[in-house]
Amino acid sequence: MEAVLELSQALVEHSASHVVVIDETGRIRYVNAAWIRFSRENRGPVDDWTNQNYFDVCQRSIDSGDTSAALALHGIRAVIEGKCDDFTLEYPCHSPEERRWFLLRAMPLPEVGQGLVALYHDRFMSESELRQAKERLALAADAGQIGIWEYDLETHKLNWDHWMYRIYGLSPGVFDGEKALWLRSLHEDDRSRLETDLARTLSTHQPLDSEFRILRPSGEIRHVLIKAQVSWDRAGFRNHLTGICLDITDLRQAEAQMLEMAFQDPLTGLPNRVLFMDRLRQAIKISQRGRSYGALFYIDLDHFKRVNDTGGHSAGDELLRVIAARLKHDMRDEDTLCRIGGDEFILLTPELSPDHATAAKQASLLAGKINAAVQHPITLARSRVKISGSVGITLIDGGISSAETLLVQADLAMYKAKGKGRNTSHFYDAQLQAEARRRRTLEKGLRAALDCGGQLQIFYQPQVFETMAIVGAEALLRWQHPRLGSIPPQEFIPIAEDCGLIEELGDWVFNQTCAQLAKWSSEHLPVKISVNLSARQFHQSGCLAKMRKSMKTWHVEASSLKLELTESVLLENTEDTLENMKQMQLSGLQLVLDDFGTGYSSLSYLKRLPLSTFKIDRSFVRDILTDANDAAIAQTIPTLADAMGLDVIAEGVETKAQMEMLREMGCHCFQGFLFRPALSAEDFERVLRDPGVLLGEGV
Ligand SMILES: Nc1nc2c(ncn2[C@@H]2O[C@@H]3COP(=O)(O)O[C@H]4[C@@H](O)[C@H](n5cnc6c(=O)[nH]c(N)nc65)O[C@@H]4COP(=O)(O)O[C@H]3[C@H]2O)c(=O)[nH]1
């Protein structure tokens, strides 16, 4: 108890309030430190306050004309006489420098002593301080364009400052503070929400924080934010709702713009991947509820790179915009189209038939429409182009709940469509997943094969003249996978191209071939070897430099090597390609156009290429005896080669009859199973050492 008393004494002593305790005669019994400090500053030093009488102090002030002192004296006496429980008074106590206000509270202290009364004097803000604070507030509100308002809970009238009028686009003459008029200026969709917010604040006295739209008299819509709280009078009755109002239209517009940008492809204006995936997830939910099937289409433009290469990126962009517009034109409102990557689009049609077969038919029809829309010629600023698309389709049946998985399925199906020869569509099936798994295994295996050696080997397929003399061989890569066995190059070369391993693989083949040539040369077995060069390898920077390095390392003459290029290599970056080929030719390497007749190179372009040989593709040779078209094409190649001063060789020759026919057409060099398949280096070496075996067997 004593400790508590000591604590309360200490608190009073060090309080910022000026405290005086008097008895019923007005004699001062106690003053705290704040009172002594204050009276010293204002009344000069008084040695012993406890010998003073507070009533006398008041009387002296009354005598000098201080009316508040009279009120104070009256009130304090009333408390001492028990006429009231306590007494408060606001009174001025002005110094020459400033005007100050104090609050006097007189309270009896029966628990301390009979007739004792405590007088607390607390300072208010000075008027100049008050004015300054008001000015500061007004300045800050002005700078922040903050409207300040007050709603009188008794009269239901609003009191606005000038910023409120500006925000609402009204003038004081038009708006007189009527609540009904104010409510009418709110956007009708937001009105009831705001009224609910207001009612909640008035019933709970929680601060109001509400955002809504207003309609200016000009018809302009603005977004505003209001914050307010209930204020109370001295008697404890709430009297006002006082708050601020901010025009946040610019902020909301910027946010909307950012949101749009975040969900939109800037080139085509289509939704981007983020938005698309969201819609796809919704479509999955719909099909999970068993309502209907949906379909996802993955559309990849075929050879789009050529448009960029020949017409520049602006032509590519223009084409993408046209394709986007065309695809969009054929869509229903509930469909979503998105550009997911450079030349890749995805289309979602969420509500097809609830019957699987019908939904598949609908999706197939739609894919046909997509192919047709893409295929239609496009007029660009400087050219007219024709492009096609490969479309992968997967049905959304609710069984798969991951949007990402569905996207992978459609992507796999799209790759299949490309493999089928492009400009077509393909449905996803489980087999594709197995193929994709195998692809991944092979990709991993190929990396390992390149790293550890032993699995890759080069075979050589003899190339013969009509006299059966061996004129060379084609180097063909073989891969013995440790678990999966022999993997055909048609399977692993495209994988190597896709995963970026082809360059390393090609460099390895070229270097190994040089090593083999060096060995045969040292054993006096001269031969010319053709090495296949994939498009990616051909276009990689430093390709020729690496080949030169290998030739130098193994002391191999460039004249003992030929490079086989496919027409597809030549169609990309035509000017760079030409320059590349010229450099290769200058190095002494001969260039062979492989698979001739399968591409679309124009004759005028072919004429410019530094080629040494045309190779007739085995697809023409296969049916040369039965298909008049193939025979006609095959026939033109030796004629063309002759006119251009080039050599010609036919590949895939399997029968004597084919060879005879080719010979009649003017082709005198052959490669094919009729002579030998691709042989291991040792077997080919045996053939080289004893060419008679070719004559002896088969031919
Ligand atoms: N049906 C039939 N086929 C015959 C006949 N004669 C030869 N062939 C096959 O035809 C392909 C000729 O090679 P290609 O057109 O350059 O086609 C090659 C080539 O494009 C690619 N390839 C093979 N090795 C390499 C390489 O080291 N680098 C690159 N970039 N591609 C390679 O893989 C393709 C396939 O190679 P292979 O499976 O070895 O298949 C070889 C060969 O075995 C025949 O009489 N009948």
What do these coordinates show?
The protein has 699 residues and is of the alpha+beta class. The protein has four domains: 2-127, Beta-Lactamase (2-Layer Sandwich), CATH 3.30.450; 144-253, Beta-Lactamase; 264-390, 2-Layer Sandwich (Alpha-Beta Plaits); 440-692, TIM Barrel (Alpha-Beta Barrel). Helix content is 47%, strand content 23%. It contains 27 helices and 26 strands. The strands form five sheets. An eight-stranded mixed barrel has the order 18-19-21-22-23-24-25-26, surrounded by six helices. The N and C termini lie far apart (126 Å). The structure holds ligand C2E. Ligand C2E binds at residues 461, 476-477, 488-490, 493, 506, 509, 532, 534, 564, 594, 618, 651-654, 671-673, 677-678.
Query: Which ligands, by name, code or SMILES, are bound?
Result: ligand C2E
Could you give the distance between the termini? 126 Å
Overall structural domain count? 4
Shape: elongated
Low-confidence stretches: none
What portion of residues belong to β-strands?
15-25%
**Biggest sheet descriptor:** 8 strands, mixed, barrel
Radius of gyration: 48 Å
